[in-house]
Amino acid sequence: MAIETVFLDAGGVLVYPNWTRVSDALGRHGVEVSAAALRAAEPYAKKRIDCGETIQSTNDQQRGWTYFNLVLQHAGVALDSRTDAALADLHAYHQRHNLWETVGEEVRPALAALRALGCRLVVVSNANGTLHHAFTRLGIHDAFDAVFDSCDEGVEKPDPRFFQLALARTGSSPASTVHVGDLYHVDVVGARAAGLRAILIDEADLYPDCDCPRLRSIAGLAAAVGVLTG
Predict the structure, then answer these.
(1) Pick from 178, 188, 166, 174: nearest CA to 226
(2) Domains of the chain: total
(3) Mean pLDDT, the chain, as a whole number?
(4) Are 31 and 110 members of one domain?
(5) Residue ranges making up the domain that contains 50
C-alpha cells in the first residue's frame, strides 16, 4: 500500500543536541572537549542504550541523562563532579528550552521532498513537554501536520498506544504509515507493535544486521518512502 503518512521522531532525525552549548557548559566547569568530539561520540552512546532490556526497564528521561554520560565517556572524558555539574546546568536548560535545538541541514529539503510525494508529516517523539515551543522557536513547527510530545500525551515509545493515538488523531492508517526513528528498540519495535512499517536512521552504520530499511540521514527519506510505496 502507498505511504500516505510519515511519522518522524524528533531527536536524532530532525533535531540534534546543541553540542556547542554542551561543550561550553563543560568548559565553564573546567572540562575541555570539543563540540565535534561530542557529536562524533553520540551515535555510539545511543547504540549502548538501544537494547531491549534497557528500553523496557527505563523511561525516556532516565535514558536521556545516562546517554550524556556515555557520550562523554566515548569522547574520552572522565566522569567526575565537574561533568555532573555541567550536566545539571544543561538539564536545567533542557527543561526550559529543549537542548535538542540544532536542525540538520538536510531536514528542510527532505521534508519538502516528502511533501512533493503528497505525504502527511507527523512528529511522534519522546520528549519533555517543550517540543511544541522548541519547534516554534526553531521555525519548523509549521512544517508538520501534527506534533505529538510524549510528555503531553502521558505515553511514550515503544508503547504502541502512542502510535495508535497519533494515527487516530491524524486520521492515518497503519498500513499506509511509516515511522522514522533512530533507536531500534524504541522506534522500530514500537512502530511494528502498532502495525506500522519503520525506517531506522543509522548515521554511523552501527546496525548492519538490522531487519528494516536503514538510512544514514533523513536526506534519502523521500526515495526510501518511494521504494516502500512500490
Answers:
(1) 178
(2) 2
(3) 96
(4) no
(5) 19-98
